[in-house]
């Protein structure tokens, strides 16, 4: 099960950003949001298979709107994921709150 709010660290080309990733599982469907610098960036239409998840969306960053896809896994209370965007690949690690 991937449901939960995770305190995350996102490694970006401009340094490490701290925030939250909220995952809401409904069967094989996934929705939720990234909360970075107090800004909520929701996503929908994601999928879950066991502890593996994928989703995509738009993330507001200091350089503007960034379209991305995200793929990752939850192991116990830890999450790890990769976000792929036009500007590069970001790495996410975190723990369930």
Structural summary, described in words:
The chain is mainly beta and 97 residues long. The protein is 0% helix and 81% strand. A hairpin with a 2-residue loop joins strand 7 and strand 8. The two termini are 15 Å apart.
Keywords:
97 residues, 8 strands, mainly beta, 8-stranded antiparallel barrel, 81% strand
Topology record:
Blueprint: E1 4-12, E2 15-26, E3 29-36, E4 39-49, E5 52-61, E6 64-75, E7 78-85, E8 88-96
Antiparallel strand pairs: 1-2, 1-8, 2-3, 3-4, 4-5, 5-6, 6-7, 7-8
The order of strands across the largest sheet is: 1-2-3-4-5-6-7-8
The radius of gyration over CA amounts to 12 Å
What composes the largest sheet?
A: 8 strands, antiparallel, barrel
Count of DSSP H/I helices: 0
Q: How many β-strands, per DSSP?
A: 8
From the helix content, strand content and strand pairing, which structural class follows? mainly beta
Average pLDDT level = 92
Q: List SSEs in N-to-C order.
A: EEEEEEEE
- Point out poorly predicted stretches: none
Helix content: under 10%
- Taken from the alpha-carbon principal axes, the silhouette is globular
Q: How large is the share of residues in beta strands?
A: over 45%
Quick synopsis:
The protein is an all-beta fold and 97 residues long. The chain contains no helices and eight strands.
